[in-house]
Amino acid sequence: TPDAMKINVEFFFKEMTYLLKDGFSVNTGYFHVTPHIKGVFRSILEKFNFAKHVLCFLFTQGEIMRKGADEVEVEITGVGEVGLLIVEVKDVKTGSVNDRITPNRNLRIKGDKLKLMGDKPDVGVYFINEATEEEIKVEADEIVDNKPSELVIVTPELAPGVYSLKVVTQFTAGATPLKEPRETIFDKTLNVS
Questions:
Q1: Position 193 pLDDT exceeds 90
Q2: What is the pLDDT averaged over residues 136-150?
Q3: pLDDT surpassing 90 at residue 50
Q4: pLDDT tier at 105 (50, 70, 90 boundaries)?
Q5: Closest-CA residue to 162 (of 186, 187, 127)
Q6: 4 φ/ψ angles, rounded to the nearest 5 degrees
Q7: Residue 164 above 80 pLDDT?
Q8: What is the per-residue pLDDT for 82?
Q9: SS3 sequence, the chain?
């Protein structure tokens, strides 16, 4: 019955979650999941610290999905509308991509419709501390380059920790800014050590 199917699927995912939390990888044939730690460890004795390190789970397609992709018929129907989007963050000093950032150094943010435009006070670039939820706004004079596909900023003086990156803008492809700001949050967290 549908109810029995739902219960069994929930049991499967709960068991998979327990295994992943215990450090095991899970391969279903359809997808493969592995626990992954991001961040820098200064020595082999250093312990995991949520302020400096990030635990996440990486999903990759399995053999069944890979073979199934060969059977998919693709039809291009046009160009999709892309909204405000961050696709890559690069720390100019270290060259780190989508990982480490350096306070008081340039940060290159690539994406779409990123240009900071509009008169609303919320417009700007923010770093959100994952532990405290404090939002640190980048000062207007720390915006080095302001283009639709790329922002270059000076990273503020951030305390060590894990941060999310948010961009708020009224930018639109037309000449007139949007009436209300829209925002995007980068789907990867950034580390300050």
A1: no
A2: 96
A3: no
A4: very high
A5: 127
A6: -65, -40
A7: yes
A8: 62
A9: CHHHHHHHHHHHHHHHHHHHHCCCCEECCCEEEEEEEECCCCCCCCCCCCCCCEEEEEEEECHHHHHHHCCCCCCCCCCCCCCCEEEEEEECCCCCECCECCCCCEEEEEEECCCCCCCCCCCEEEEEECCCCCEEECCHHHEEEECCCEEEEECCCCCCEEEEEEEEECCCCCCCCCCCCEEEECCCCEEEC
Distance of alpha carbon 104 from alpha carbon 125, whole angstroms = 15
Cα distance between the two ends of the chain: 52
Contacts of 52 (CB under 8 A, 6+ apart): 39, 40, 160, 161, 162, 191, 193
The token pair at 52 is: 């400096």
To 10 degrees, the CA torsion angle through 18, 129, 141, 185?
A: 40
Place of tokens 């397609």: 61
Give me the pLDDT at residue 173, please.
79
User: How far is 1 from 6, CA to CA, in rounded Å?
Assistant: 9
Tokens of 12: 């499967």
